[in-house]
C-alpha cells in the first residue's frame, strides 16, 4: 500500500511537470528558407537547403521550457550551378550526402536579448557537433509566426571544404521559418 506522503509527492511532481509542459507553445513548420553565403576567390557564392523538418516548442514568456529542433537534407543543397552542386554533394571533404544525409540543430538554451532572442544550439554536420549562438527574432501573428535568424560559422569546425584555396572560412547562415500553431 502506498503511503499518503508518497501519493502527495507523486501528485505534486506530476502537477509541476504538467505546469512546465503547458508553458511551451507547439509550432508546426509551414515553410522554410535556409540560405548560406561564402566567399570563393573574392566572389560571393549563395546557396540554399530545403527539406526542413522540426519540432518547435517556443513561448517567449517561458524560455526555460522552450526547445527548438530542426534538420535539413544535405542532398537538397542548391547554388544555382549544377556542377558546383554535384561537387558539394559528392566530393570527399565537402558534404558527402550519402554518408551524411542531414544537418541538424538542437537548442540547448534560449535567452531573451532585448526584443529578440539568442539560442545556443548544438549544430551537427558531417557527424561533427559543435555549439553555436544564433540570434533570432520571433514575430507572432496569432496562429502564425515567423522565426528569423542569422549567424556566421567557421566551415572548418565541421570539416567542410578542407583546404580549398580561395574559399573563406566564414559562412553566413540565415534561417527563416514560417510556422503555425
UniProtKB/TrEMBL annotation:
Domain Lipid/polyisoprenoid-binding YceI-like residues, every copy: 26-180
SMART domains reported in the protein's UniProt record: YceI
InterPro entries for this protein: Lipid/polyisoprenoid-bd_YceI, TTHA0802/YceI-like_sf
Coiled-coil blocks: none
SUPFAM superfamilies per record: YceI-like
PANTHER family referenced in this protein's UniProt entry, alphabetically: PROTEIN YCEI (PTHR34406:SF1)
Protein name in UniProt: YceI family protein
Organism from which the protein derives: Flectobacillus longus
Amino acid at each position: 500500500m502506498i503511503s499518503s506522503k508518497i501519493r502527495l509527492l507523486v501528485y505534486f511532481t506530476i502537477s509541476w511537470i504538467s505546469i512546465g509542459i503547458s508553458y511551451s507553445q507547439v509550432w508546426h513548420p509551414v515553410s522554410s528558407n535556409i540560405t548560406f553565403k561564402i566567399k570563393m576567390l573574392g566572389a560571393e557564392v549563395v546557396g540554399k537547403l530545403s527539406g526542413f523538418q522540426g519540432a518547435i516548442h517556443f513561448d517567449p514568456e517561458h524560455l526555460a521550457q522552450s526547445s527548438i529542433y530542426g534538420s535539413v537534407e544535405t542532398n537538397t543543397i542548391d547554388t544555382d550551378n549544377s556542377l558546383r552542386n554535384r561537387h558539394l554533394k559528392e566530393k570527399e571533404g565537402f558534404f558527402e550526402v550519402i554518408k551524411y544525409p542531414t544537418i541538424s540543430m538542437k537548442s540547448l538554451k534560449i535567452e531573451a536579448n532585448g526584443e529578440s532572442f539568442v539560442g545556443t544550439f548544438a549544430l551537427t554536420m558531417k557527424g561533427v557537433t559543435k555549439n553555436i549562438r544564433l540570434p533570432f527574432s520571433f514575430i507572432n501573428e496569432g496562429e502564425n509566426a515567423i522565426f528569423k535568424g542569422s549567424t556566421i560559422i567557421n566551415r572548418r569546425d565541421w570539416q567542410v571544404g578542407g583546404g580549398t584555396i580561395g574559399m573563406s572560412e566564414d559562412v553566413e547562415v540565415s534561417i527563416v521559418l514560417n510556422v503555425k500553431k
